[in-house]
Amino acid sequence: MNFVSMLTLGIEPVWIVLGVLAVVTLVVIAWFVGSYNGLVRIRNEVRNQWSQIDVQLKRRHDLIPNLVNVVKDYMGFEQETLENVTKARNLAMAASGQGQAQQAAAETQLTRALGGLYVVMENYPELKANKNVSELQEELTSTENRIAYARQFYNDTVMRFDTMREQIPTNIVAGMCGFRQEFQMWKTEEAEKAVPKVSLR
């Protein structure tokens, strides 16, 4: 065996090892980039879902004063109920942008206040004949349904983000790149679930 043959045999394993290392490095980089991009995508989906909830909440905030103004002439002895709704609405509007937990808590209080208004409204049969009240009630019900749908979609997306962020091996990328638990589930309290539905027809 001459010198060239020996040199070739000695170098060949080195190239194989370098080739394997290069492939492994490329796979790791591709996995890292894919994991990072996946986390970014889901995080942006969560933020988008929250903005969808926010749109529906603002719509509800805009409808409530109209309802209060229409029913107050019929409900002269129920000023406290109307004031509770107005106060809860103002607090909910003030909580917007103060953090998801605070906003969710304020919106739950508003839902409770609306529930109290709906219960009182049942004691006024003449409201059933009022077209404006009926239309506002229908718009509010539609808005509540949209809020519930958007909230469920938001919660599902938060769960996907948290699952991906916590699972091995994606949690390595999440830890290195600062993907923290920045979103909270919007939980429906029992009192909110029990809000009565009224039909003014």
Describe the structure concisely.
The chain is mainly alpha-helical and about 200 residues long. Helix content is about 80%, strand content about 0%. The chain contains 6 helices and no strands.
Overview of the molecule:
The longest helix is centred in the first third of the chain and has 69 residues, at 3-71. Helix 1 (3-71) runs antiparallel to helix 4 (131-166) and helix 1 packs across helix 5 (170-177). The protein has helices at 3-71, 79-95, 100-121, 131-166, 170-177, 190-193. It is built from six helices and no strands. The protein has a single domain (3-193), classed as de novo design (two linked rop proteins) (Up-down Bundle), CATH 1.20.1440. The chain has 201 residues and is an all-alpha fold. The termini are far apart.
What is the subunit organization of this protein?
single chain
List the secondary-structure elements in sequence, H or E. Answer: HHHHHH
Taking all residues together, what is the mean pLDDT? 84
Q: What gyration radius follows from the Cα positions, in whole Å?
A: 29 Å
- Give the helix level as a range of percent: over 70%
User: Within the CATH hierarchy, at the fold level, what is the topology?
Assistant: de novo design (two linked rop proteins)
User: Could you say which overall geometry the principal axes of the C-alpha atoms support?
Assistant: rod-shaped
Distance between the termini: 102 Å
CATH class: Mainly Alpha
Q: Count all strands and give the number.
A: 0
Count up the helices: 6
